[in-house]
Design a protein that fits this description.
The chain is an alpha/beta fold. Helices cover 41% and strands 18% of the residues. The chain has four domains: 194 residues, Rossmann fold (3-Layer(aba) Sandwich), CATH 3.40.50; 204 residues, Rossmann fold (3-Layer(aba) Sandwich), CATH 3.40.50; 232 residues, Orthogonal Bundle (Transferase(Phosphotransferase), domain 1), CATH 1.10.510; 217 residues, Alpha-Beta Plaits (2-Layer Sandwich), CATH 3.30.70.1230. Strand 9, helix 11 and strand 10 form a beta-alpha-beta unit. GO terms for molecular function: adenylate cyclase activity; ATP binding; GTP binding; guanylate cyclase activity; peptide receptor activity; protein kinase activity.
């Protein structure tokens, strides 16, 4: 009984000092009974000690706010206690007992806190959830040496450790830390002048109250403080004129009218309606407590679109622990443990309560491990010290405790745009060194800014505006005279600018129509013949794929491909017949202008186009001397090393890469024939861009291709690649580049063997039709998996060991170029990277250097080989010249050799001689053919020797007939009659009447000629010649002959056929209408009187009607024998 009366006064004393008036007598009696029973046990068994408090049991005093929304806080504490045990954070043999009592109801929490301390022996308090009771209980807790941890109260007054030495807080609503974070963001943007908007009352618990003190230490000026009634409407705020005051003194404005962001809705609406929402104003909104689960513009009782516009481009700062990820994770865990789905506000409260108990568990563990024993939880100040300067990952993210056991939250700065929030700056919490903290309490922690997005502000530069506008808040700091001058200049520019731009466009259009690429036709000199390079350029370029070029070479050869020279530049040209005048649209003019100025080491230079002159359309490219890649790769006599193929492949992809990045975009006609090789063995792509223009002109019948005379007509020549090439801008360019690389690397045609024969047969059938459809080309390019024979196959490795890894990578790239879907084919940039990475040259230096080294090694052998070949060539040339000169006159032969065309020509006067062997038919009938040929060869060889000494030409021999002409093709005045007369005298048999002549020994050829097989035979010839006009020309291509035509030839033949053996017969002159005909008799009689002629008389000679009229004879002619020549 004495113990009972001892305890009772203590309880009454506690009631009077702590305002505890509602503790029941039953509870007191129960406590006394427990104490007395413990006393009895102690008396009965001295070895067992019964303490008032059991070891290892922590009694938790939970002061639960009288709010049904957060009714499940005890479940959260139990869940956290279980987690502490499960994760072995609590020491062994320790357990947590939770005693929950009401708070925040007329200071009921204070009463229950005393009860929990004196009756339940609570060693730690969690709660209450209201600031008024927290301020009281926080002062009682250090008197009891009990720590108290706040999870919902973040009042700045609680950070005073003189009055609250055992108080800790994990709340995210710390106003002072929010103020520090706001200052960090202001310093990040170099804002040194701000304005603050706060409520007219109750602002002491908000961050703006602490902000006013913080900015003084950071050299930030507070220009204006506007106080607004918390529940004022937008109209009332506008009518108060406070916005005008704010506008005239600040551009960076911190707005906080309550713990939740919804409290600033009406103010932001007023700002929006006052048109203060522009890029110069930045509204920073601290968001301390998330009391609603939706944004202000998602509320049901507002104009959502207007509110969204009002909050557009605002800066919102809130604790990172409110992140939706943390919220969702905890809500899922809590509902799975308890089966309760809490609302938004309750879940946030539960998360903070969980972190509070978790913090206590960590502190208890550290104190126990430091040797505190199982009674360490009774030492509240020690437990509180273990809660300072530590951090852990809780349900609200990183929990960082400072030296005052106050949580320093990390904050996220959001940019509101179009109803969504995007993090632009993260403000990471960080504790500083204790040395700095001891010198200055404000330096115990700080926030480090990390920008996640830059240039997000809706200004021209994307940067946030300065704190003070350039012209001040009212614009009074600017001198507007420059603006007036600028406006005048702008007006002038607006007037003159469009006119200048119009003139510029016209000038540009004029330059476009100047056509710097147009070449006058008179400056172009066409060359005969064509080289391999130009043949590849022009003749085969119609093929859009290398395989069709190879199989269609015969057809492509129909198109005229020539060389030309313009201003000293050798060109390869393509000629077309121009049907009508051609005009180019602007798109083609721009294309040709770009093409003219385009230059690259791996692109052939476009020279120009000649059109609308002489009905010709000529496209000119600079001539490459070594031909096309097809000429080189498929030339078996040309031995090329691997380095050449590597160089060729790299040149091709380099040129294609440049084309694809140029205004021309693509080649469109890529094939081996359009890859030329210059003198330095550099590959140059050609025939790009112009083919599309040509195809358009051909389609519109503005152009027509030239064709050879023996080929089909232009309308019947099929063009299988026109549509394919014109439409290959995108779909086929990857396919064609892969095809070209395939041919370069393996030096084979894409479809060789049986597959090639099949395609050749198919193409041959289709060429017989009028049109060649695009479907075939699409079938070749778009073959599916079942048609693998359409795609080229890779030849096996020469070594027999397969390809190395680098080659396999390159082959994979080539195969990717043949994929069915064009978009899946690699771009040329990727192809170039693969080629450069996997094709390596083995030699040193450039390709020309390697070529020169190889040439030096073979120089000695080549000199002898060239010398021998040159000698053979010269001998063959001489033989060809001799043969040609024996067939044709020398002047005619020279013209034909240089490529000149020999046109038929009329000669006013020439002398033609015919000779015939008397009795040739009889001799032939009694001789063998060999004997006949032998004696004719001997005789005519003698005649040839005589002709060689005179200005005459042997036209032909037919059997025993021998034809000579003088004065053709080289005219010699009247000397042709003298030359023929001398030749006739030397050819005929000797007449004894001429023995007295001094040149007798020169005219005895026939007289001394003997037949080898009939020496007794006396050889005699009939000779006749005639002078007059003749026509001459080359007849035939396979065996060209120089032939004579005209009445003079016929008359000379009649003179021989009607003559007498060993006589030289000519026709006499006749005068008709005072015109003296230039017959042989007249010429010899007038100009060469040394020749003697004897009249034979009149005989009947068959001549033409014209000569009949001229001679006035009908049946007979006056004939003279030419006797000889007087001796000098």
């Amino acid at each position: 009984m004495r113990l009972y009366f001892f305890i009772l006064p203590l309880l009454f004393l506690a009631e009077s000092r702590r305002s505890i008036s509602k503790i029941s007598h039953d509870e007191i009696n129960q406590h006394v009974k427990t104490t007395l029973s413990c006393k009895i046990i102690m008396q009965s068994n001295r070895d067992q000690i019964c303490f008032f408090l059991a070891e290892g049991i922590v009694r938790i005093g939970h002061l639960h706010p009288a709010n049904p929304i957060i009714a499940h806080e005890p479940d959260v504490l139990k869940m956290c206690a279980d987690d502490l045990k499960t994760r072995n954070i609590l020491p062994q043999n320790y357990s947590l007992n939770v005693f929950t009592m009401e708070s925040c109801n007329k200071f009921s929490g204070v009463e229950h806190a005393a009860f929990l301390h004196y009756i339940k022996n609570a060693s730690v308090y969690f709660g209450p959830g209201c600031n008024n009771e927290m301020l009281v209980i926080g002062r009682l807790a250090p008197r009891w040496n009990v720590p108290i941890i706040a999870h919902m109260s973040g009042d700045d007054a609680l950070s005073d450790r003189v009055q609250f030495p055992t108080l800790g807080s994990v709340a995210l609503t710390s106003a002072s830390e929010m103020a520090k974070a706001t200052v960090t963001y202001l310093n990040l943007n170099n804002w040194n002048q701000i304005g603050i908007v706060r409520p007219s009352y109750g602002f002491e618990r908000l961050s703006v109250y602490s902000l006013q003190h913080q900015i003084k230490k950071r050299d930030i000026n507070l220009n204006v403080v506007i106080e607004v009634e918390p529940f004022s409407s937008p109209e009332e705020i506008i009518a108060s004129g406070k916005l005008t005051t704010l506008q005239s003194q600040a551009r960076i404005i911190v707005v906080e009218l309550g713990m939740d962001i919804h409290t600033v809705t009406n103010f932001m609406l007023a700002v929006h309606r006052s048109e203060m929402k522009n890029e110069e104003f930045v509204f920073v909104i601290p968001w301390l407590a998330h009391q609603n689960d939706h944004y202000p513009w998602e509320a049901a009782n507002v104009d959502k679109q207007e509110v969204k516009s009002a909050f557009e481009n605002t800066i919102i700062i809130t604790a990172h622990g409110y992140d939706k990820k943390f919220f969702d994770d905890f809500q899922l865990k809590f509902s799975s443990k308890t089966g309760v789905l809490a609302n938004h506000y309750a879940t946030l409260s539960y998360m903070s309560l969980y972190d509070a108990l978790f913090l206590y568990g960590l502190a208890l563990r550290d104190a126990f491990e430091d040797g505190g024993g199982y009674n360490v939880h009774m030492n509240g100040s020690l437990i509180w010290s273990r809660m300072t300067n530590r951090q852990f990952i809780g349900m609200t993210g990183q929990v960082l405790m400072n030296n005052k056991a106050i949580r320093v939250p990390s904050y996220a700065t959001y940019h509101a745009i179009n109803g969504t929030l995007k993090i632009v700056v993260e403000l990471e919490a960080k504790n500083n060194d204790r040395g700095q903290c001891e010198k200055n309490e404000d330096m115990c922690s700080e926030h480090v800014a990390h920008e996640t997005i830059q240039y997000y502000w809706p200004s021209d530069s994307g940067k946030l505006p300065p704190a003070v506008p350039k012209c001040g808040f009212t614009g009074s700091e600017c001198d507007y005279r420059p603006y007036f001058i600028g406006a005048s200049i702008l007006a002038f520019l607006l007037t003159v600018g469009p006119l200048s731009y119009f003139i510029y466009l016209k000038q540009k259009e004029r330059l476009l129509y100047d056509m710097t690429w147009r070449i006058p036709r008179e400056s172009i000199k066409l060359l005969e013949g064509k080289s391999r390079s130009e043949h590849s350029l022009a003749s085969k370029s119609q093929s859009s794929g290398s395989f069709s070029g190879s199989m269609n070479s015969k057809q492509n050869g129909l198109i005229a491909a020539k060389q030309a020279v313009s201003n000293g530049v050798k060109l390869a040209i393509k000629r077309y017949q121009q049907v009508r005048n051609i005009t180019f649209p602007k798109s083609e003019l721009r294309l040709l202008k770009e093409l003219k100025i385009l230059e690259n080491d791996n692109l052939n230079k476009f020279y120009g186009i000649s059109f609308n002159q002489q009905n010709e359309f000529i496209v000119m490219w600079v001539l490459c001397s070594r031909g096309s890649l097809e000429d080189i790769l498929f030339n078996d006599e040309l031995k090329l090393g691997r380095n050449f193929q590597v160089s060729f492949a790299k040149d091709v992809v380099k040129g294609l890469n440049f084309l694809h990045t140029s205004p021309l975009f693509h080649h469109g006609m890529l094939c081996l024939q359009n890859c030329l090789v210059d003198s330095n063995w550099t590959v140059k792509l050609t025939n790009f861009a112009t083919e599309q223009i040509i195809f358009e002109k051909l389609d519109h019948n503005e152009l027509r291709p030239y064709v050879n005379a023996d080929s089909e007509s232009a309308e019947d020549v099929p063009d299988p690649t026109k549509d394919f090439a014109r439409k290959s801008s995108f779909r086929y360019r990857g396919w064609l580049s892969g095809m070209v690389l395939y041919q370069i690397l393996f030096r084979v045609e894409p479809f060789h063997g049986e597959t090639k024969a099949l395609i050749v047969s198919l193409l041959g059938i289709l060429r017989k039709t009028k049109y060649f459809h695009l479907e075939l080309m699409e079938m070749l390019a778009m073959a599916n998996d079942d048609d693998q024979w359409i795609r080229p196959t890779f030849p096996s490795s020469n070594t027999g060991e397969g390809y190395n890894l680098q080659v396999i990578f390159l082959l994979s790239c080539i195969e990717a170029c043949w994929l069915e879907i064009p978009e899946m084919r690699p771009p040329i940039k990727k192809v170039r990277t693969m080629v450069n990475a996997n094709l390596k040259s083995t030699g040193k230096g450039s390709l020309v250097d390697q070529m020169m080294k190889m040439m030096e090694e073979y120089t000695a052998n080549l000199e002898n080989m060239v010398r021998d070949r040159t000698a053979l060539l010269e001998e063959a040339q001489k033989q060809a010249d001799r043969l040609l000169n024996s067939m044709l006159p020398k002047s005619i032969a020279e013209d034909l050799k240089v490529g000149k065309s020999v046109l038929p020509q009329l000669y006013s006067c020439a002398t033609v001689l015919f000779s015939d062997i008397r009795g040739f038919t009889r001799i032939s009938s009694t001789s063998t053919p060999l004997q006949v040929v032998t004696f004719l060869n001997d005789m005519f060889s003698g005649f040839d020797a005589i002709i060689a000494k005179h200005d005459a030409y042997k036209v032909e021999t037919i059997g025993d007939a021998y034809m000579i002409v003088s004065g053709v093709p080289t005219e010699n005045g009247n000397n042709h009659a003298q030359n023929i007369a001398d030749i006739a005298l030397k050819m005929r048999a000797v007449d004894k009447k001429f023995f007295f002549l001094s040149n007798y020994h020169q005219i005895q050829f026939i007289c001394n000629f003997k037949l080898a097989h009939r020496p007794e035979e006396l050889m005699m010839v009939r000779i006749g010649f005639h002078s007059g006009p003749v026509a001459a020309g080359v007849v035939g291509l396979a065996a060209p002959r120089y032939c004579l035509f005209g009445d003079t030839v016929n008359t000379a033949s009649r003179m021989e056929s009607t003559g007498v053996a060993n006589k030289i017969q000519v026709i006499s002159s006749s005068i008709s209408e005072n015109f003296l005909l230039p017959y042989s008799y007249n010429l010899l009689h007038c100009f060469f009187p040394q020749f003697q002629m004897v009249e034979r008389g009149k005989i009947e000679v068959k001549v033409s009607e014209r000569i009949e009229k001229d001679l006035l004879f009908f049946a007979t002619k006056l004939i003279y024998y030419y006797r000889g020549k007087e001796s000098a």
